[in-house]
Specification:
- With 182 residues, this protein is of the alpha/beta class.
- It has a single domain, classed as 3-Layer(aba) Sandwich (Rossmann fold).
- The protein contains nine helices and five strands; from the N terminus they run βαβαααβαβαααβα.
- It starts with a strand and ends with a helix.
- The chain binds adenosine monophosphate (AMP).
- The site of adenosine monophosphate (AMP) has 17 residues, from helix 2 and helix 3.
């Protein structure tokens, strides 16, 4: 199976859930920039303090900040990995490409999980994280469309994208993903 993966998709599409399942099954390193940022916030580190307010508003933290988080973890790691929630902008994707070239670890596949806006909003409201207020959710979906969706084209040009329907039960989605990565 492919070993170096990027998960793309709007907030609420189920990237986190599916990433955890796949990483456990395949022994991949799960790198969720959202989780890593929330851990920094919880520990009140300088980085966390900088990120907290931005995250609660549903804005994106700076490219350089997330890049430093990812770089630290990928640079001296040799196994397979799955990036969840990163890259989220074209500059992040470009910086990632430079980093991956340096460490000779190209992306094997990008998994795009798609779901309708109404379903995303319903799911996120049910989850109830501190940034899951309806206005903030809509803003995050909007930002996804503006800043992150262009990455689909970017990776399509490299022939890397597998598009997966994000509806149905968790196991069904997990099998679609695994099938696409064989
Ligand atoms: P997530 O858990 O992926 O939904 O991320 C939660 C929040 O963390 C986002 O709304 C952003 O504020 C921030 N965040 C996570 N990943 C990134 C990233 N790659 N670039 C910028 N901000 C991010």
């Amino acid at each position: 199976m492919k070993q170096r993966l990027v998960f793309l998709g709007p907030p609420g599409a189920g990237k986190g859930t599916q990433a955890i399942l796949l990483c456990k099954k395949q022994g991949l390193l799960h790198l969720s920039t959202g989780d890593l940022l929330r851990a920094e916030v919880k520990a009140s580190t300088p980085l966390g303090l900088e990120a907290a307010e931005i995250m609660n508003k549903g804005e994106l933290v700076s490219d350089s900040l997330v890049l430093s988080i990812v770089e630290k973890r990928l640079s001296d790691f040799n196994g397979g990995w799955l990036l969840d929630g990163f890259p989220r902008t074209l500059p992040q994707a470009e910086s990632l490409e430079i980093l991956l070239k340096q460490i000779h670890q190209p992306i094997d596949a990008v998994v795009l999980i798609e779901l309708k806006d109404e379903v995303l909003i319903k799911r996120l409201l049910a989850r109830g994280r501190s940034d899951d207020d309806e206005a903030v959710i809509r803003h995050r979906i909007q930002l996804y469309k503006e800043k992150t969706a262009p990455l689909v084209d970017h990776y399509n040009k490299q022939g890397l994208v597998n598009t997966i329907r994000g509806d149905g039960d968790i196991e069904a989605i997990a099998s679609r993903i695994e099938e696409s990565l064989k």
